[in-house]
Amino acid sequence: MYVYPWDIDAKAKAKYLKKLKKPEDLPQLVRTVQTLYHNSFKVPFMFAFAILGCAAALVLGCLAVRVVRHLRSSPSSKRSGAVRKHFVDAPLLGSRHAEPLTLVPGIGKEARPIISLAVPLRSHTTVLFVLALLNFLPLVACYSPTSVKDNYYYKTMFLQIIKYFGDRTAVLAVAQLPLVILLSGRNSPVRTLTGISFDVVMLYHRHVARWVVVQVVLHAIAYSLNEAVKDGHEGYIETMNKPYVKFGTAALVFVVAMVVQSLRVLRQKAYEVFVAVHIVFAALVLAGVWWHIALLANTRYALFFDLLWLAIGAWVFDRVARVFLLVALNTNLRMAAGVPFLSRASVSLVEDSNASLLHVRVFPSGATLGRALDGSSVMLHLPTVQAFVSHPFSVMAGGTDETGRRFLDLAVRPQAGMTRRLHERAINGAFECVALLEGPYSGDEMDLGGFEHVLLVTGGIGITHTLPIFTKEMRTPSSKTDAEKPAAQRTVEMVWCAKSASTFAVALDTLEREVASARASGSTHTRAKITLCVTSQSDSRRSSTLSEKKSSSDEEKGAAPFDSPVLEGGLPLDSIPQLLSRQTPEESAGDAARVRVRFAALAPEVQVLWSEGKPDVGAEIAQRGEAGSTLAIVACGPPALLDAARAGARGVGAVYEEAAYGW
Predict the structure, then answer these.
(1) What angle separates helix 26-37 from helix 10-18, to the nearest 10 degrees?
(2) Where are the beta strands (DSSP E) in 208-343?
(3) N or C terminus of the chain with fewer C-beta within 10 Å?
(4) Hey, what domains does the chain have and what are their CATH numbers?
(5) What is the largest CA-CA distance in the chain?
(6) Model confidence over 266-308: pLDDT tens digits?
(7) What is the pLDDT of residues 224-273, one digit of tens each?
């Protein structure tokens, strides 16, 4: 028979009857035990079940919305647009969301903040408020203690309340462990069912985990006070030396260490180390909690073990799913001819990028489909570069090379850890290595087919997310979307900001392939436009000077300058090498000038404009919004850029989606 923690079973009765000193005290003892079980277990478990029930309802609700969106591909109505503008896409206060709020600044002029907090959207805040309410209420309300004279054990109201309080924190902490782990895994069923982005799931994961930490710390404090007041110093020391308390203390230490180790500044400093240590600490916390409860040897605690089994099962599921994906995506189990048994990657510097960017082309040996992963997030393991770590990247492009091998292109800006090691090796020349992929791990993509104008706001290496969208919309045929507005009016436009013009080189190979394909097909596609904004003044002046020198040199030779109608009107892609070969040695060192030549050759299929300085993103969006066409905006880049794009989109009532640089 299953016994709940609040049930008084035969063993519980026998245990308490042993402590009965006088038979006439039996009614008092029964009332005391009933009150204890109700306050310590039944009340907090009701709130714990409410938390888990709300989480399940949220998953089902998101699944329902996902199905509706799949069935209805048309742009949202005015009513749903107002909900998105004022609730779904609106930051809690002001316009700040992607850029974290600094709570404790770093030491030094440009140091990262020691403690920062991401400001949630109003829709996310609603969920977090319910979570906070259900965690907070059982700590301060719903107590029904007995009077001091009627309590058999606790002769002061303080001891009675602190006992109930300590038990409630334990219940709430253990009950939320499965939820914490379900929200942490990249292969979590929550993400699979809801299609929610990894960043949003991580937001919920962090807040649930923080409440677990709060409950664990309060549990330790409450029980320490209870033992110290009830039994004095000697009794307190004796209790602290019991094995079950030592295991609980170990779990407390590791769970607090996880909080410290999860600070944004530490995650950014060494992401791979953070992930590895986080996994190890999580396993130690589960082990500590398990033995902390098991050594109490109480049959009424079966529900605690059920919750722990759920947490362990979620963790094991994610590990097994990751292993399955690694095998399925990266091993040639079919023994296909000409395909290596393990996936491999070629790593090289991006041409014309001033050696600042890396091009990683992965050749998967397993079941990965090229374009099916474009724009998705994947985890990349490079065991011969840095073992036992993986790093998240966005797939910039996919396809088949000239030898017929399927590939996925990743663009990498070296920072620290694995990416720094990659750059150090690539500086000495291109190389190949074993590469293991996991994924894709992105949320549902917005259906942009029903929008007349698609604007992609991009910052730096964020092009890895927006470039696949741009090329996909470029390939959209010119056919009527409805009876009144033909798709020939559709425009896909990208505003791309980078400190250096050489950064733009990372997209050129993909764009040149798309333009070549469009010219070969000869069909009319969606109008495409790119505005390239060089935000560094020194780089702008340098590239402009080189361009002017190139123009003067070409004019002397009878060739067209960079901004001539010949280049903007359409330049054969096979003429680029001849143009570049005309550069003087001084000009050949200017990667920015070479990038301008290659972009100019994309016309007329892609109209390319250049700009200097940071663009006014809000004004750019407002200008598109005034055109009166249905507008969708997708942004990926630094936090400040995303916040500006979100504010601009809300200002014109555009549908908005973003992919943040998450840590």
Answers:
(1) 130
(2) none
(3) N
(4) 10-18+27-71+86-97+115-321 (no CATH), 344-438 (2.40.30), 453-660 (3.40.50.80)
(5) 115
(6) 887 777 788 889 999 999 999 999 999 999 888 889 999 999 9
(7) 999 999 888 888 999 999 999 999 999 999 999 999 998 888 887 777 78
